[in-house]
Amino acid sequence: MIDTLPPWLWIPLAIALWGYLALDALVRHHNRRKENR
To answer: Which regions span the lipid bilayer (predicted)?
Structure first.
């Protein structure tokens, strides 16, 4: 599969993935709280 990626690429890739997931969760939580006024 993706075993051809160099090891140093996994760190920024994981950071970007977790950052995206955290940002998405924050945005959804903020939008939900804004709608429930």
So the answer is: 6-27
